[in-house]
Queue: 2 jobs
Job 1
Amino acid sequence: MILGLALIFAQPVRAADFGFVGNRSVWLGQGKYFSGDATRVYTIVVNNTYPSLSLNVNFFANKKLVQTTAVTDIRLEEARQVWVNYILPVGALNLSVSLSEIVAKDNQGKIIPVSAAEVRSGEAETTYTIDMDTDGDKIGNADDPDDDNDGLTDLEEQRLGTNPLKADTDGDGIGDAEEVKRGLNPLKIDTDGDGVPDNKDVFPLDSKEWLDRDHDGIGDNADTDNDNDGVSDVIEIKLGLNPKNPDTDGDGVPDGAEVRAKTNPKNKDSDGDGLTDKQEIALRTDPNNADTDHDGLSDGEEIKMGTDPTKIDTDGDGVPDKKDVFPLDPKESVDSDHDGIGDNADLDDNNDSVPDGQEIQRGTNPVSVERWHWPRINFWLLGGAAMVSFLLAMMFYGFYLQKKGDPDR
């Protein structure tokens, strides 16, 4: 048996005057081939007699025409290689070549008649066997003890009734050898007959079980806590939780832990303070109390501000965070003029352009901005002379303040 090797004719048929090269009538390209391989079929035409020869070379496979190739002007004693592309089938393959449309010419270009007998005498053929390589291991099936390379020899597969040319006979996604190793039936997609294919069945040999969501080795049908969150399925159903999800609200805290902590396992933020229960556990705040330190600021607000949600007075200056304009600065707590500078560091607390020191010396208030107002006087009750005297007094007082340089008038 020849397994995909180049073929050589031992006794080729050739015409006396023209035909195919004596020892290589038709052959495959160099190399080792199996069915399904793309290769070339070669032949060589030789002209032993005529000054010029043109013809068609017809390639046949199992008596069916593969392709016709035209060859022109083959000179006297010239050999011309001709080939066609071909995909090899499996099994017996008869390759043959013939010549047609032969035109022979003399040196003056005059056509020389060629008889039909001469044409027929130029035919050649051979038959050989092409093996297949099912598993692509470069070993033909005829020589390969495990054609599908599934780990079971062809003889073992024959005894089991599995397909030696198919690695997964039942098509369930598990190779035949693996099924045999695990005690499964390589001829059945669902060994235990529970309606779940072997490749998706966690318990492929137990018709009562097929899932194990919490991976505890106990099938869901027998498991009282399928998600292994510490809360039985019965209680989870009563609480409106998902018995197949260990963290119903997806906050990172298992339902069992939330039930024990008395937080809401159906709400990521049980106290609604803007922090998830998991964040509060990490921060050591109370997930059931929106304001753990009772300072009037919610835990979420304090985290945004950068203050400590577990301390009423984060900077320890004696002023609660809620009332402290600078809750992270122990040296400041008030900003009277809202200029971003605490009063302790601000040289002009009321931002009236008069330094606090001068205001203290003059007796004015350095914190609040005071304006001088006309007193409310019922001028109708005053006589004319009295009213004039009052107005003059107020005017002179205004001049005095202006000269003094106090804008807090």
Job 2
Amino acid sequence: MAEAEEQETESLEESTDESEEEESEEEPKLKYERLSNGVTEILQKDAASCMTVHDKFLALGTHYGKVYLLDVQGNITQKFDVSPVKINQISLDESGEHMGVCSEDGKLLLFERSWMSRWKSSVLHEGEGNIRSVKWRGHLIAWANNMGVKIFDITSKQRITNVPRDDISLRPDMYPCSLCWKDSVTLIIGWGTSVKICSVKERHASEMRDLPSRYVEIGKPSRNVRRQKRIHFSKGKPKIMFVFREREYCARPRLDIIQPLSETCEEISSDALTVRGFQENECRDYHLEYSEGESLFYIVSPRDVVVAKERDQDDHIDWLLEKKKYEVVLILLSLKYLHTCNRGEKVSGFASLIREWPGDLYNNSVIVQAVRDHLKKDSQNRTLLKTLAELFSSDTAGVSDCRFFFFLFQKAVDMLLDNEDKISIKKVVEELEDRPELQHVYLHKLFKRDHHKGQRYHEKQISLYAEYDRSNLLPFLRDSTHCPLEKALEICQQRNFVEETVYLLSRMGNSRSALKMIMEELHDVDKAIEFAKEQDDGELWEDLILYSIDKPPFITGLLNNIGTHVDPILLIHRIKEGMEIPNLRDSLVKILQDYNLQILLREGCKKILVADSLSLLKKMHRTQMKGVLVDEENICESCLSPILPSDAAKPFSVLVFHCRHMFHKECLPGPSTNSPAQFCGICSAKHRGPGSAILEMKK
């Protein structure tokens, strides 16, 4: 059975493309396959009359009044015995929980999914003749019988309108009505050679009275020279109308894809389909359904269900190979995969190839440069550095790059440094005099371990760093305290090492020359501003302003960064009238924003300071307002007698300071007895912060 179905599928595709291949070399737009499994079993005993598609399942109606629910592979999941006569059409809501079924007996049945996935049915409409088509969208249901199309509003339980058919000469059983919802308020009606567009609109409250809350506005009908069978309106793409058309009796059906234009239509593709039993079928026996979720088209005939879908990239390549267009295939594949070749992710594979392939197969200098370019992005990639060392070992042209020696001789250098007691530093340096690149590797490793152990060679290392490892020269100059600055400055100036020269000049105290070199050699205003900030010297800012005053880009940089260190007014007043300065407005806005920010910060700090002062003042006031215990154990700090008299009836006067020192009033010296001392004499003499004489006891 499976082999027979496979052969039939192949014959379907071959017969579909046969005539097209004879006529032209144009690639088909769709590919086709039969829906098998349970569908094959059903159509051996029964005939398909209709079908509807949901994203989760399919519903198939038959001539014997059965409705089958199928999965997307065609396997049967449920079966309903709906009617003893043919099922005309099935319609599902968007959730797949409700299903409308109309049949030859004139009934419109509503199936609702209940608990445990069971379905219960009810009659929605009957008694007005044979219902041949039903479609619903949202709260609106449309169905068609021999007289016309009805639209029903489920929410209000009202029939909105009746759209009569135009050409009553066409037999409705031969040319049934086709319904399609474009959106929730637009219904497309295709009947014979006529296509109508109906728009459902809300009725104004003043017009309602006893009329339904909605009404239907029918657009001007369009005429088609061919009699269509089924219309579908696609979404998410240019509006395409899919039509079955009848050429002649017993002919193979053709599936046309038509692109509507402003004034006409363009035929995109036309495929002739060889379905089972097409010789016995008529136009009314075919149905077209569309699954939006999967972008699949289902062509339904009494003895066959064919699935059509858009061809993908793999299908396109297979077609090109079949046509022997190998160059086009190579171009497509290169576009798909070539961009992965530039990622540099297969570093280990690259290293293996360098070791395995003979050196005469490639240009060594080109490969060395490529590795160097990658190391600029990933300077610590050990695999690339080892590979670079291997390339250099076979080509002395790259010996000036010393990084690979760290990996070639790293273990040897570590062994020498770990055994200084057996092989001295002086001995190693002398032995490597003829190999300065290796000498540099050894001394660099020694300096990394201890900045002071090889101080006698620091002057020599300046030249070695400049020759073989400039990237580490500036860190060396910063970390070394034994490097002769004059010698280093001479070497850097000879080699025109600007950044190193700037550092040495600033370290030697010649900041103005360093700033001048930054501005004249590097032309980097940001670096000059950063240097002036580090030095924090007003004269440097003045030199920077004078140098920049006739250079608009420098003025822009200064305006953007000077505000936190120098008053911008000093710079703005010196700008010549009429000078064009790039981004001047943005720079001035930034200055004002920075100024406003400073004002806000100061106001915020002031509020915090005032709040803290007030809080501390209140706390001090509460503390000073507390009582002080005075008893027989306390003494006068002046006469050293008990502060309280032995005779409680005798009057006395005592002064207690906040420092807790107590005095008899008469023991305190003062200009008069009426104006006692305001400060504790003991605390004032010791500078401990005198207390105030605000507590006084009298009796």
